[in-house]
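Quick board copy: two proteins, each given as sequence then tokens.
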Amino acid sequence: MDINVGPLTLVALSKFPLIRSGDDLGRVIKDCLKENDLTLQDGDILVIAQKIISKAEGRQVGLESILPGEQARELAQLTAKDPRVVELILQESNQVLRHRPGLIVVEHRLGFVCANAGIDRSNISQADWGGEESVLLLPADPDLSADRIRFSLEECFGVNLGVLVIDSHGRAWRNGTVGITIGLSGVPGVVDLRGEPDLFGYQLQVTEIAAADELAAGASLLMGQANEGQPVILVRGFPYRLREASFSELPREREKDLFR
């Protein structure tokens, strides 16, 4: 397998504007690249925080409009959570897997396991809702969102690109959150190294690299989690060949998951 052994650089786009519903993210990113005196080259990847995609796609929901059902009210009592938020969690999920006070772990309708269906209150303006309390849902189709941004920028710059949509998730057995991929376009989700030789000629038997998630984690370091305001990272020198792919490469099949 051909691997790029050159330098890998990650650059956060500074001066990124606040995003509102209906904004054209491809245009906003293009303008921000110009503001940062950057251009795109063949093989570059843009790693984008899901939050700005959700905002642009109108995924902010006012809680006053949510009527919790019986299941949501019962689960809210067990978890000490707002029953309206619990109702949204249930609507965005295939299955509730675990819960404790303050936390509901679900299989999201997009196919991955996460806390509270990825629904978040942080870094969203309540002023847009007239002061009404609101939350932000994950993008409806992150792969499609990545496609749209990628094709828009490829047309503008005349180069081949990759796009990752990432979110911060907790992990079994470990404290803290880490950036992971929830949508992608033009970037391999998994790189299969089975059959490749190691340093001593041994053929690898099981090695598959979650390349998209590894890159997501690095980009998340630059994005930050508080008031940094850097939701887009330009990556150059990704070691693996870009190719068409989808998020479906990343979740482990249920029948092979020993921890459900």
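And the next:
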Amino acid sequence: MKFEPLNLSKIKTYPLKERKNKVKIKDFINLNLFYKDFLSYLSSLPSILAANDLKEVVNLIFKAYEHKKPVILAMGAHVIKCGLSPLIIELMKKGIVTAIALNGAGAIHDFEISLIGETSEDVAENITSGVFGMAEESTQLLNEAISNCLGKKLGLGQVIAEKIEVLDNPYKEYSILYQGFKLQIPVTIHVAIGTDIIHQHKNCNGAALGEGSLHDFKIFARQITKLGDGGVYLNIGSAVILPEVFLKALTVARNLGYQVNNFTTINLDKESHYRPRVNVVQRPTQEGGKGYSLIGHHEIMIPLLARAVLEKIALS
């Protein structure tokens, strides 16, 4: 049996230069700029894929700052555990970050840092002996602070910051919650019951915890109402809780008649997750604005982004 091959002799071709190409030499890394100042280094990066996104994000944050639009930062606890609190605080002091949202774990790590200058226990080691989450000071003091939310229309962020101030924690300058309190920048905390070590203890008041978190949600939603026409929202290292909180707060803002459109959303994490992709990057900006996803480790990406923005502002 013989199988007849297709005759390719009449294939039509066209000149290479007439083809639409996605990669061009003008977009290659620029070594002349690579060795100069940091912004020149950033400009030297290829204008391709994530490098181009990074440059756009830097410009959008700068424009938000320049036009006094919000730059809201939602953070998972890992940002604090990566040693980046001083940099986040610097962005707050410089007036770049205008509001911060934390999950419950973020608040705990922030408080522990302010108290003893250390945080993040060895879960694998402590879970086997039943002592995971059983550090006395963290649970006792935080639950005491949270009990002040009950019936007082106070958010978790405020009562924990006030607790840090009253105790005069020795490392409070490293606390995002405390610095937000001093700078009058809202730092809100959004919890899910049962997810944090302080929920394991008898002095945890569920009513106070819920009331404080709900109050913080309303404060957060107020900040979201200001995002339209140039604001920037960053979700860093939260795969579930904060993307869901953001989507609900955005819905509330639009339901109440606020025109929250034409803004920028950025998800920054070491890997891609479903909820940040759809609830931060895609859905909120589908009728105006743009969403970005930057993948990389926090301890590399956040300093890179922050340095670029700070230098751009310094040179403006």
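Board note added afterward: The chain has a mean pLDDT of 92.
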